[in-house]
Design a protein that fits this description.
The chain has 67 residues and is mostly helical. Helices cover 60% and strands 0% of the residues. It has helices at 14-30, 36-58. The longest helix has 23 residues, at 36-58.
């Protein structure tokens, strides 16, 4: 007998989760002095913003597949 996987759906959309991650990373970076850790958090925030923008563009209703 195979074990049934416990699958749960996220309560927030991907866009909401990316925005939340970005805001939390920026807030954490504000509390740090200038340095490599702060730079890393700010880079992660920028990456999250880029991912949110890509997701928004890819999920646009007018997007058509290539021919």
């Amino acid at each position: 007998m195979t074990k049934k996987r416990n699958r749960t759906r996220p309560t927030l959309t991907l866009q909401e989760r990316l925005n939340k991650f970005t805001q939390e990373a920026r807030a954490a970076a504000r509390n740090l002095p200038a340095g490599s850790e702060r730079h890393t958090l700010l880079q992660k925030a920028r990456d999250g913003e880029a991912a949110a923008e890509m997701e928004r563009l890819l999920s646009a209703p007018g997007l058509q597949p290539p021919k």
